[in-house]
Structure formats: structure tokens, C-alpha cells
């Protein structure tokens, strides 16, 4: 018997399920700079969306950065 696919949760369902793990932080503010952890394709995509929506993306952070900038933004080493 083939395995049944699990239904994909909506964003609202996902958001509610992780709210407790965010330590009280439930939103980012467009008035504060945003640092994105990870400069791979997902991080780059997130930065573009945030910038288009008016957020101040300050740059990226990685544990072992391979370059100094990503999409013109600084890439800093964590730790």
C-alpha cells in the first residue's frame, strides 16, 4: 500500500506552530535593520522580497563565508 502524502500546512498554520519557539519575537520591523542568516539562494530570495517590501536588509551572516558581499550587501562571519 503506497504511503499517503501529508497535506502541506498553510503559512498561518505554520506560523502558529512555531510562534512559541521564537522567544516572543513574532514579527520583524521595517524600522530595524534585518540580518539574514545564510547567503544561499533562499537567503538571497528572502532579501529581495524584504527589500521590495521596504525593509532595511543590512546584510548576511554565515558560519564560514566564502566571499565578502552577496547582492551588494555585506556577508559577515558568525562567531
Write a structural description.
There is one protein chain. The protein has 79 residues and is an alpha/beta fold. The chain is 25% helix and 22% strand. It has 2 helices and 4 strands, in the order H-E-H-E-E-E. The protein has helices at residues 11-18, 41-52; strands at 34-37, 57-62, 69-70, 73-77. It is extended.
SSE arrangement:
Layout: H1 11-18, E1 34-37, H2 41-52, E2 57-62, E3 69-70, E4 73-77
Parallel strand pairs: 1-2, 2-4
Antiparallel strand pairs: 3-4
Give a short overview.
This protein is an alpha/beta fold and 79 residues long.
Beta content: 15-25%
Mean pLDDT: 83
General form: extended
Structural category is: alpha/beta
The number of distinct β-strands equals 4
For the terminal residues, how far apart are their CA atoms?
49 Å
Q: How many whole angstroms does the radius of gyration measure?
A: 16 Å
Main sheet: strands, sense, barrel: 4 strands, mixed
Low-confidence segments, given as residue ranges, are none
Largest sheet: spatial strand order? 1-2-4-3
List keywords for this structure.
single chain; 79 residues; alpha/beta; 2 helices; extended
Amino acid at each position: 500500500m503506497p504511503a499517503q502524502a501529508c497535506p502541506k500546512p498553510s503559512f498561518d498554520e505554520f506560523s502558529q506552530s512555531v510562534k512559541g519557539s521564537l522567544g516572543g519575537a513574532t514579527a520583524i520591523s521595517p524600522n530595524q535593520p534585518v540580518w539574514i542568516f545564510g547567503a544561499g539562494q533562499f537567503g538571497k530570495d528572502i532579501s529581495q522580497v524584504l527589500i521590495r517590501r521596504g525593509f532595511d536588509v543590512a546584510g548576511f551572516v554565515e558560519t564560514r563565508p566564502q566571499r565578502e558581499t552577496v547582492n551588494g550587501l555585506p556577508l559577515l562571519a558568525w562567531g
